[in-house]
Amino acid sequence: MSKLKRVDLDLAERILYPTVPTIVLAEYNGRVSGMMAAWWTQLSFKPFLIGVAVAPERFTYKLILKSRIYSINFIDSSLINKTPYLGDISERFYPNKIIVAGFNIGRGEVLRAPILLDSSASLELELSRIVEVGDHDLIVGEVRSAYAIEDFNGMWMLRDYKPLMYLGRTRRPDKVKRVYVKCRDFEFTEIEYAPGDLREVASIRFKILDTLEGIFKGMAGRSRRKVLHELAGVLKEYNLDPSDTAYYYEELRRKA
Predict the structure, then answer these.
(1) Phi, psi angle pair for 192, to nearest 5°
(2) Where are the alpha helices (DSSP H) in 88-159?
(3) Average pLDDT, the chain
C-alpha cells in the first residue's frame, strides 16, 4: 500500500479530479451561451435534482437566472478541440461562441431549452433554487427530460461514447493549459451487491426501511410526536438507537 503524503491545501482541490465535465447551455432573449462545468453532482432521486457550481460572473449564470431553464450536455472526447470555446472565453466578449465553435444547437422536447445536438447526452432542467456556497453558487435544477445516443442502454456501454475527462489546469507563471484524459479502452468489472455475509446485513436494513415506511404511510395525518413514537418502537425491536428515529422520519417525510 502506497504511503499518503501531505498535500498543500492550495493544490488539494486537484485531488477531486478527474471529472467528466458537463456543458451548461442556456438562452434568454434569443442569445445562447454555454460553459464547461467540472463541479456538478446529482442531489436527489425524487425529485431528480442536479447541482452545478457556477460563478455569478459567468454570462451563462445570468441567462439561467433570467430564463430559469437550461440544459446540461455531455460530449465525447473526440470534441476535445472545441473545449476552449466552452471553458476559456465568455459570450460577453465573444458573441455566438457556441456556433463559431461548430456546435449545433437544438431544442429539448419538454422545456424547449437549448441543447447540444453534438453531445452524447443532454438533460433539460428547470431552475429550482440557487444556493450561495462560497465563491461559486450551486445552481439546483430539476431534470424534466433526458436524451442520449444508442450507446446508453440503461447504463453506458462505452462503445461509442468515450467520456471526456478533465484533470484541471496548470498554473502561472507557466503557460496555462487545461489537461484532459482521453480513454479509448474500458475494462468492465461487476461486483455483486452486498455479496456473501453482507447480504443478510443489507436485507435487514431494507426490511426495517419497508416497515418504517408502512407505518409512516399508515399514520398520515397523525401528529409528528405519535409517528415518532411508533417508529422508535421498530428501532427498539432491532436493538437500534431510538434517538435515530428523527433521521428516519426526515427521510420518510421527504420521500412521501
Answers:
(1) -60, 140
(2) 97-100
(3) 94
Question: Distance between alpha carbon 22 and the CA centroid of its chain, in Å?
Answer: 9
Give 228-247 pLDDT, tens digit per residue: 999 999 999 999 999 999 99
Contact 53, 155 (CB under 8 A): no
CB of 124 closer than 8 Å to CB of 131: no
Within-domain flag for 75 = yes
Rounded CA-CA distance 141/41 in Å is 11
Per-residue pLDDT averaged across 75-103, rounded? 93
All 3 cell numbers of residue 104? Answer: 449545433
Judge whether 129 lies within some domain: yes
Give the total residue count for the chain. 256
227 and 114 in a common domain: no
Q: What is the pLDDT of residues 10-56, one digit of tens each?
A: 999 999 999 999 999 999 999 999 999 999 999 999 999 999 999 99
Q: Report CA-CA distances (Å) from 17 to 21, 38, 39, 143, 166.
A: 10, 9, 10, 25, 7
Q: Which of 62-76, 174-188, 236-250 has the lowest mean pLDDT?
A: 174-188
Containing 132, the helix (H) or strand (E) segment is: strand 121-132
Domain count, the chain: 2
- CA dist., res. 79 & res. 74, Å (int): 10
Residue-level pLDDT at 169: 87
Q: Which domain holds residue 22?
A: 9-182
Q: Is residue 190 part of a domain?
A: no
Statement to judge: residues 147 and 222 lie in one domain: no
The CATH number of whichever domain residue 118 belongs to comes to: 2.30.110.10
Last residue of a domain, one of 182, 207, 228: 182
Judgement on whether residues 149 and 43 belong to the same structural domain of the protein: yes
The model's pTM is 0.90
